[in-house]
Design goal:
The chain is mainly beta. The protein is built from three helices and 19 strands.
C-alpha cells in the first residue's frame, strides 16, 4: 500500500502541481473533483443517474481510513465519521474549501481497497459553492491498453500511463485483491497517492482507484505486492504500481448516496 509518506518527502519538493508523463493529459484531465486527505488522495464521485440533491460521496482507499487498515475479511458499513477533505481547484494550485463527512458508508481491503464517505453537502451545493462537478464512476470494466491518468490530490500531481494488464489476484501482507489493474512503468506513483482516482482519458470517467506498488522486489510483503495467477504461479514486478477497479460500485449504491449490498448486481464484499 502506498499510504506511507516518509519515504516520499523528497518528491514534495518537485511535485507541486506537476502533470505527469504525457503532455496530452494536461488538456484532458484536471484536478477538478479531487481532494486531499491527511494521509492520502481521493475524489468526489457519483454514480450515473445520481441526483444533484443527493449527498456527495468521496472515494479513497480502505487502507486510508483514519483508524488504520481494516483486517483481511473486514467490511465496514455506515459508520459515523467527521473526516474532512480539502477540495482542490481545477489547476490543483489552491484549496477551494473543506468538505466534511457525515459517515463512512463502505470501507474494506478485501477483494478491493476502497472507502466511500457520504458528505454533509450535496453535489448541487458543491457545484454552486465551488464550481466543481463530481467525477462519474464508469460502469464498464476497463480495457487493457487504455490511457489513464492517476490524479493525486495529496501531491497535486497527475501520473499518466496505460493499463498494462489485469491481475487475477494481487497479494500484499494479509490482504488479497482481485482483478487488479497493473500500470505500465510510466506511472511511478508514490506514498500519498493512495486513493487517487484512475481516470480513463478517452471518457473522463473514473475506472479505478490507485492503491499500491512493489517497492523493493520482495514477494507478497507489505509495500511489495505479488501477482498470483489462476494456477497459483507467483510473479513479482519491482517498481510496478497497481490500482483497483471501481466499475462495480454503482451497482451497490441507491438513492440518497446510500450503500445497499443486497441490491441486485452488487458484488462488493459483505460484512
Amino acid at each position: 500500500m502506498t499510504r506511507r509518506l516518509l519515504g516520499a518527502l523528497f518528491a514534495l519538493l518537485t511535485a507541486s502541481a506537476l502533470v505527469g508523463a504525457s503532455p496530452a493529459s494536461a488538456a484532458t484531465t484536471t484536478f477538478a473533483g479531487t481532494v486531499a486527505l491527511s494521509n492520502c488522495s481521493g475524489s468526489v464521485v457519483k454514480a450515473p443517474g445520481a441526483a444533484a440533491s443527493d449527498p456527495a460521496l468521496v472515494m479513497s482507499n480502505g487502507h486510508c481510513l483514519e483508524e488504520g487498515f481494516p483486517s483481511a475479511g473486514e467490511v465496514i458499513v455506515n459508520k459515523a465519521s467527521q473526516r474532512t477533505f480539502s477540495l482542490l481547484s481545477k489547476d490543483g494550485r489552491s484549496k477551494l474549501g473543506t468538505l466534511r463527512a457525515k459517515k463512512l458508508i463502505y470501507g474494506t481491503m478485501t477483494d478491493t481497497d476502497v472507502s466511500l464517505y457520504q458528505l454533509n453537502t450535496s453535489y448541487a451545493q458543491i457545484q454552486q459553492t465551488y464550481g466543481i462537478a463530481a467525477l462519474e464512476l464508469s460502469t464498464a470494466h476497463p480495457a487493457a491498453g487504455a490511457h489513464i491518468d492517476v490524479v493525486s490530490g495529496y501531491w497535486k500531481k497527475i501520473y499518466s500511463c496505460n493499463i498494462d494488464n489485469f491481475v487475477n489476484e494481487l497479494h500484499e501482507g494479509e490482504w488479497v485483491w482481485k482483478d487488479s489493474i497493473r500500470y505500465t512503468s510510466a506511472c511511478k506513483t508514490i506514498g500519498g497517492t493512495s486513493g487517487s482516482p484512475i481516470v480513463e482519458t478517452s471518457t473522463g470517467k473514473v475506472i479505478g482507484i490507485n492503491n499500491t506498488g512493489n517497492e523493493d522486489g520482495e514477494r507478497c510483503t507489505v509495500n511489495n505486492p505479488c501477482e498470483v495467477d489462476a494456477n497459483g504461479q507467483v510473479t513479482v514486478h519491482q517498481g510496478i504500481n497497481y490500482g483497483e477497479e471501481t466499475y462495480g460500485i454503482p451497482a451497490c449504491l441507491k438513492a440518497g448516496s446510500e450503500i445497499d449490498l443486497a441490491k441486485a448486481g452488487c458484488a462488493l464484499p459483505k460484512p
